[in-house]
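Exercise 7. Predict the structure of Non-homologous end-joining DNA ligase from Kribbella deserti.
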Amino acid sequence: MAQQLTTEVDGQLLKLTNLGKVLYPETGFTKAEVIDYYLQAAPVLLPHLRDRPLTRKRWPDGTGASYFFEKNAPRGTPDWVRTVTLPTPGSSTGRDEADFVVADDTATIVWLANLAALELHVPQWRIADSESGQSPTADLIVFDLDPGAPATIIDCCDVAQTVRDLLGHFGLDCWAKTSGNKGMHLYVPIEPASSRRTSEFAKLIADQLAEAIPETVTSTMTKALRPGKVFIDWSQNNSAKTTLAPYSLRGSDEPRVSTPLDWDEVAQAADPADLVFYPADVLARIEQYGDVLASLYDDPKPLPK
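Solution. The predicted structure, encoded as C-alpha cells:
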C-alpha cells in the first residue's frame, strides 16, 4: 500500500499520509480504512454534523497510544475548511473562546480522518445563535444510557423503550443509536429551546423513571449506585457538553461505530453482540436502509410548558 497519495474530494485537493499506519492495533485496521469508511459514510454523517461546532478526539498513533481532545482548528487548517470562533466558558486552556471546525462537506470529513480524528463530537445546538451573540438554542435533547455491570446494552434497550413511551405522553418522538461502546443514546427532536430548559426536562424524565423503576434505573451521577442499573445521563444537554455523532467511530480497541437503530431492532435485541457494528456492517446498513435517522429533524415538537 502506498503510504501517501494526493486526491480530489468535492473539488478540494487533499494529501493523505501514513495510510498504512495501524490505528486499531487489535484488529489491524489502518488509517486508509478509517479514511475510506468516513468517505463512504459522509452522505449520512454530514446532516448530523452540519452547522454544529465539532470537537474531535484524535489518536495520531492509534488507539493503543494516547489521545487528545481538540476544539481549536489545528495549525495548517486549509482555508477552505469552515471555522467559527465561539465562546468556551470555563475552558481548561484559559482561553474563553475557540476556533471550531464545522464539518459541512465531505472534503472536511476526509481531512479530519487523515488527522486520525476518530471520534467526532457535537453539541445539541447549531451555531447560528452563538454567532449572533445569543445563547445557543438546542434542537435536540439527548439521553445517554450507560449500563453498570452486570447490566448491558440489552438492559439499555428495555429502558430506551420505557423512555420512548414516557416521552410519547408529552407528544415527543424519540430515536435510538448505539454509543459504539457499551450503552445507547436517545435523541428527541424539539423546536428550538434554551439548554437550561432542555436540561431541566431531561432531568425530569430521568428522575421520574428512576423513581418508578428504581431497581432498573438511576438518574444520579454517583457511580456506587450504578451496578446492575442503567444510568440515564441527562447532563449532556448542557450547552457546553457534546455527544458522539451518529456514524462516528469510537477510539476503542476495535473500530466500532455509533450506529442508528430502528425500534424493532431495539425491541428484538437479545445479546449485546447483536448491537456491535463495525465499519463494513454500517456501510452495508447504509446501502440497504439509508440513514435510519434521516427524518430526525423533519418534525420537531415543542417542549411541554
